[in-house]
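Retry 2 of 3 after timeout on previous attempt. Resubmitting structure tokens to design endpoint.
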């Protein structure tokens, strides 16, 4: 079974909305304008590209990333790996042509079936609503979190607010950087 990894920039209070400057959120761009840049804190992002074999995202994140990431050297490795977009509304004619193989999945059952195929880890970027569904369905195996020393208050959060039994996580890797950023890699205990 393939490992499904949720990767996120996250504030100390759990907000993941608008990390890169996306419009419509009052604290948009908080990852680079409010915390000093320390290159080694982002080494995990390069590692994710080398270790992942597929990218999974929701429609909103696909629509935000697909016009930009194909032309960015920082994400060059993602161009060659298969991409999967979970959406009930996205149509084939809305897929970009310059970002390699992209498949639309219509349900979390299809994500579960994808996990059962041969291959390496699948990385999830962005995709708040998708992360909530994946977490509630027990499909996430690992979290890569870059925790920023900020309290953003209101905003979309990575973890769902579903009333459910305790979910245990096991810290398998961590680091703290001079700018206060924390890198936490946590396995979901199934």
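Retry 2 succeeded. Sequence:
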């Amino acid at each position: 079974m393939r490992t499904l990894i949720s990767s996120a920039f996250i504030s100390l209070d759990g907000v993941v909305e608008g990390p890169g400057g996306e419009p419509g959120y009052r604290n948009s761009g908080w990852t680079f304008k409010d915390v000093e840049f320390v290159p080694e804190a982002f080494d995990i992002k390069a590692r994710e590209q080398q270790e992942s074999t597929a990218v999974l995202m929701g429609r909103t994140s696909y629509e935000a990333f697909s016009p930009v990431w194909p032309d960015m050297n920082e994400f060059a490795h993602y161009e060659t790996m298969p991409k999967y977009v979970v959406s009930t509304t996205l149509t084939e004619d809305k897929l970009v042509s310059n970002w390699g193989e992209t498949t639309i999945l219509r349900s979390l059952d299809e994500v579960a079936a994808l996990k059962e195929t041969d291959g390496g880890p699948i990385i999830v970027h962005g995709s708040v609503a998708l992360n909530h569904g994946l977490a509630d369905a027990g499909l996430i195996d690992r979290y890569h979190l870059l925790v920023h020393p900020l309290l953003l208050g209101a905003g979309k959060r990575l973890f769902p607010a579903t009333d459910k039994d305790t979910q245990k996580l096991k810290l398998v890797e961590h680091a703290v950087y001079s700018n206060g950023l924390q890198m936490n890699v946590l396995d979901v205990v199934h």
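Attempt log closed. The first helix runs from residue 30 to 33.
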